[in-house]
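Risk mitigation, structural track. In case the binding assays with 4-O-methyl-beta-D-glucopyranuronic acid fail to produce interpretable data, a predicted complex structure has been prepared as a fallback.
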Amino acid sequence: ETFRPVGGRRTLVDGTGPLVDTVHGEVAYACAQFGGEVVVRGEKSDASSSYDLVLRVAEAGGSGDTGPGLEGVGELGSLGGLGSPGDGELGAEGFAIERTDGTTIVTASGQPGLLYGLFHVVRLGENAFRGTRARETHRPATALRMLDHWDNVAVHPVMGQVERGYAGGSLFWQNGCARQELERVRAYARLLAACGINSISVNNVNVHETEAHLLTDRIGEVADIARTLRPYGIRTHLSVTFAAPIVLGGLSTADPLDEAVRGWWAEAVRKVYSAIPDFGGFVVKADSEGQPGPFTYGRSHADGANMLAVALAPHGGTVHWRAFVYDHRQDWRDRSTDRARAAYDHFAPLDGKFADNAVLQVKHGPMDFQVREPVSPVLGALPRTRVAVEVQSTQEYTGQQRHVCWLGPMWSEALRFHPESEQRLRVAELARGGLVAVANVGDDPFWTGHPLAQANLYTFGRLAWQPDADPHRILDEWIALTFPTASERLAAGLRAVLHGSWRTYEKYTAPLGVGFMVQPGHHYGPSVDGYEYSPWGTYHFADRDGIGVDRSAATGTGYAAQYAKPWAELFESAASCPDELLLFFHHVPYGHVLRSGKTVVQHIYDTHFEGAEEAEEARRVWAGLADLVEPAWHARVAERYEEQVRGAREWRDQVNSYFLRKSGIPDGRGRTIY
Ligand code: GCW
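Fallback model:
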């Protein structure tokens, strides 16, 4: 449907190469459905001015000559530039668009740019073909816009197939091997290209025994997936286990400074590239939640990352080394260890020690993808390191795709955060290593389990392309593309249920930045003390007098001092700390008056009542759209709203009852608390 505007018209495709073929195929498909004609520049083509749309790869930037070898590999390989999205005005992925004398002209200097230009025309719809349009250029802010799939090949006994997956099984793996039928993967690649994503890691960062073999004897299966993704400009990456030389190579050590180990990796990487010449690189979770790593050998994480970087460098690959390193076997009695501090403590001292093709991949918050966290201080602390920001599109802690929680505003806030680094850059500019999201997609017919969770995927891709874009404008794009014939009533309804959904979720779950009041293990639903006496380092310290974690430098764990000024000072004092993060940084009495003028406990009661009411209201709005949405789509969302409303009430009643019982302070408005 969304291709209708292109389909009805005459298009000239000018360029050669596999991604140009993809562009041609897209336009031809649209013409087959909606009429129109597509011509490839050649003997039969007329003058450009006789077409409605010209899609051209300009000669100067080096276009179509792919040379010998695998289809498309040349173009994608040339994207591997370190950090910069390519040279020239447009780079390999940018494009220019203008309209004169009745012809819309898209020019790119690389084939991927042409593909993105086509999708831009599709987003513009009929507007792409109206009046005149002065030349404007578009190019991505960062060269790497990536999805990490936490997919297992084998179905894991506890986690299922996709770790923290809420959209069915894996798109890539089925019955213990790569899917034979890759049509759906091709459709996925197309969908991702349409929102600007250009890299995928195809397996879980917790690398189990079966999945370890993807690196070596099962690389052919990865190559099949890579071949399917390639025509849409997407490079394939793999999560690998740091212990691979032992578990796959039969060596006695995985010490990153051991010559035999280094040799083993060099050879393993060489074989990977002979199967997948445009292979993107590795994602590594090391010394984290039980995964092996360099600490075993008394080596640093720079030693570990650099060993892999050296092996990948000759082939243009990158190692994504995750900064999610902390003690997950903490004694809850120990108040001096603070999980929030861990990534900074481990990695800030290593600034400047990482190889050029090593990227430090940092979660946006210091803990673990909670509904509210401060921005990680790591992001401002390593100016001489290529850092990537990792967000979680899969809704592990934000309703597991049974609740509506559009994360655009949260991500946008994090990307606009200004850590006051010396160069005064925002997080989005500091993220020279790219933007990464943990994927929220599976083999579910609606892709994301909850159909409205598609908005998170789309928003992530578009924010990765342009991190300062207004997320609400992106949401409008998603609405227009998903419902091309949407009436204003439908668009308004979708905005009403999505816009505030993150804050609604925050209201009925964990208050004021406290986090982790979830049921242990699967993390769905409330359990205020579920993690309070656990080894995971995720405590709220509620007692009869108050709640929160003292992370000040003066009397607490010192985490607040990991920020530069003015943030360190702002977070240090309960008086200046923003309300929404108060309990993240401070332990305060229930009667503490927030900047909003309310006491902490009254804020807890009020937000929980409000949040549950907002969920009910959203369900009502959705029910009113039944005549405007395809029935199966509507029914799936409606069914999930039943669960969301039930869940929101459960959260409200458990959290409110817990704090009434702890504090003994009644609700100022006398509502029912149990
Ligand atoms: O949020 C936690 C999840 C784990 C995950 C881990 C990580 C893949 O609960 O399931 O493991 O983060 O990011 O590595």
